[in-house]
Amino acid sequence: DIQMTQSPSSLSASVGDRVTITCQASQDISNYLNWYQQKPGKAPKLLIYDASNLETGVPSRFSGSGSGTDFTFTISSLQPEDIATYYCQQYDNLSVTFGQGTKLEIK
Amino acid sequence: QVQLQESGPGLVKPSQTLSLTCTVSGGSISSGGYYWSWIRQHPGKGLEWIGYIYYSGSTYYNPSLKSRVTISVDTSKNQFSLKLSSVTAADTAVYYCARVSFSDSAPHDYWGQGTLVTVSS
After folding, report:
1. Closest chain A residue to B62 measured between Cα atoms?
2. How much is the average pLDDT of A45-52?
């Protein structure tokens, strides 16, 4: 099974900061990587699919990059409404795995 | 706009079978093009994929849960269901249903609001 290592587990940043979260796969998953945002008490929301494609309606300050085993999720200018937990998710051989999550807080 | 809604008992006794249904509106399961997924989240923890189903009935399960999980589909009701047998307190979680797009990475693009299931006597 492919393991996903997401870091950091928590992050504190100021409004306007550039924020980066990484996800590393235990083996090559091409671009089979998605990113989600989850706010407290709510279902996750898809932000980025296939590593770098912005889901329709998602603000352009969110972006994703990477392929193979190393992936990056970036918020170019943190906004107060971005406070949430972010998860990566990989797909390989008909199986799905989520990263451990990164809790993002305002400094 | 596709909407998904989970339903089922919020309390299940240990050793019994947890049963949940997801009702899909705004789109037809039988039209194809999507898988339909179950995911759970233990209190204060991360997301765990349980499995998914295609309208034809093809299923794929998380290997760690496979021996206890059954996912089925009822296209006439536009619903799909989850059964998890021999539950313990460790199965207490919020259970989500979601639609899985047929993109390379299986993105879950629409989710239900989630339903909390507590396993307790």
Report:
1. A95
2. 97
Q: Is the pLDDT of residue A47 over 90?
A: yes
**What mean pLDDT, rounded, does chain A reach?**
96
B48 to A22, A44, B29, B45: CA distances (angstroms) = 19, 12, 23, 9
Task: Please compute the mean of the pLDDT values over residues B61-87 and round it to a whole number.
Answer: 97
For chains A and B, count residue pairs whose Cβ atoms are closer than 8 Å. 73
Chain A, nearest residue to B105 by Cα: A32
In this prediction, residues B99-104 reach a mean pLDDT of 88
* C-alpha distance from B97 to closest chain A C-alpha (Å): 10
> For A1-30, b where at least 16 C-beta lie within 10 A, e where not — what string?
ebebebeeeebebeeeeebebbbbbeeebb
What average pLDDT does this structure show over B69-91?
97
What DSSP designation does A76 have? S
C-alpha to C-alpha distance for B96 and B88, rounded to whole angstroms: 19
Mean pLDDT, rounded, for B52-68: 95
Q: How far apart are CA B121 and CA B114, in angstroms?
A: 22
**CA-based nearest residue to B83, from B111, B107, B117:** B117
Among B87, B102, B117, which Cα is nearest to B36's?
A: B102
Q: Which amino acid is at B89?
A: A
Task: For residues A79 and B99, give the distance between their C-alpha atoms in angstroms, rounded to a whole number.
Answer: 28
Distance CA B118, CA B111 (A): 20
Does the pLDDT value for residue B33 go beyond 90? no
